[in-house]
């Protein structure tokens, strides 16, 4: 028998993901999101949810920043302003309507994406079949509301994006999953991996192995590096000293070997560190440009409008930015930057408390978010905005409010270190 409530939850969380990275949805005109916004709004009302004071304060801060930018630059990009509020509402209404199991639904959807993407990924090695999918099937999934933003668009069928570029081991194809490119897929998978580590307290389980397989199939330099960092973070918190002190050197040694041996790791990282390439803004070059712009406008930032951000430049390569961390800083200023990532940290902190996991995992989660954001413009996406609001699902509670049966101080080897002293109020 179909569970209507569960199906609704999956659809809501899927749309949260889709409007963040699935080309059919996120590239479309903002009007499409506004129409779909009715779905979480109706569910929010039917389930008798209430708007938190937190969200009111959130919107007030956003409006202050937007008004500050408007007065500073005498520019009112209505579409940009409206788009931000539509994404904020979509993120908030969705997580409040779905509730505390939002991370679990997210994990399951990403695991499904790994399965479906691997199916199409393997089929793509048949050249004739791949060309048929790209030239005959993919056009059937064209969204007429998609706007031309000057960037290359790969053929997609919503569940999978065909990306012919090869930078992987032995020039294997790269798996983009349903997202705009392989590196983006790896970032969304890392969020699911973080959630599942916190929820289960373990790294070595079936769901995590599937998620990590998905990351490997992307052959994303940043994705593989970040996955290695997450493994190191986990081992640092592991209560089994034998596991910690044996596996940490092994992971480090494997990382060094991969860096030296594979072009798509070491050589690519070195090339991306170049500041002198005048034809393409690398991640590091983007950061340098953004930091220079930030120094001129540290309080309210420069916004997202082309009129204020790029000093009247029109060349797509000159305007290209792919460092999400520095991009967030220069768009909204220093105070908003600190508040944004504090809220992300707070969400993971309370998620750790809710599942009885060492609170240090929240700090490692924040570092992971920064690492994946170093190579992708993630932080204006609906999903990542929702990460700043997840704390509303897990209200403050002290150690006394945590039932003893929720805390297992005798975890089997391999689990995160859990102590009552870690369960404190924030």
Automatic annotation (TrEMBL):
One of its GO terms (cellular component) is membrane. The keyword Isomerase does not apply. The keyword Ligase applies. The chain crosses the membrane at residues 7-24, 30-47, 54-74, 80-98, 105-123, 179-199, 211-234, 246-265, 329-349, 361-390. It is found in: Membrane. It is a multi-pass membrane protein. It comes from the Bacteria. GO terms for molecular function: ligase activity. Signal peptide: none annotated. InterPro entries: O-antigen_ligase-rel_domated. Keywords: Ligase, Membrane, Transmembrane, Transmembrane helix. It holds the Pfam family Wzy_C. Residues 211-330 form the O-antigen ligase-related domain. This is O-Antigen ligase. It comes from Saccharicrinis carchari.
